[in-house]
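Q: Okay, next protein. This is GNAT superfamily N-acetyltransferase from Streptomyces violarus. I've checked the sequence twice, so it should be correct. Can you predict the 3D structure?
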Amino acid sequence: MSSRTSPISQPITIRRAVARDAKRLTRLVRGSGAYEGKYAAAVAGYRVGPDYIEAHRVFVAVGADEHGGRVLGFYSLVLAPPELDLLFVADEAQGRGIGRLLVAHMQSEARAAGLDRLKVVSHLPAEDFYHRVGAVRTGTAFANPPAVPWDRPEFEFRIPSE
């Protein structure tokens, strides 16, 4: 079974990001295979800095390994206005349920913050993923050249109370 389709085989911990994670998260964004080719310019200069981590609820999925925990993915929850700003899973870790774990964690955090819904402006290649994890398509975020020269699907997560 390939690593893209195998289930999670190592313990995964989701923890709050800290300033020292900033460079690893930036590398994960800039190195994402989902942003190759025509999409590369959208993340070429992107930076997840310590200031961003401090200002938002950023959480990382860490796998236990010989290096003491490798970042497999992360997300950023912005509370006002409520939005899932970033969600990335390392290319080599995709297809193993880590994105689903991050979404479930995000929903729990959103619920704890008193949110009942939040929006996501999706990258085109991630559209199917958001459908699969329960987000509802609500519209289109129109192109904003030169930063983003293409339209993007807009979704909403409805956060049920427990």
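A: Here is a summary of the prediction. Residues 9 and 71 are 15 Å apart (CA to CA). The mean pLDDT is 91.
Q: Noted. On to the next one.
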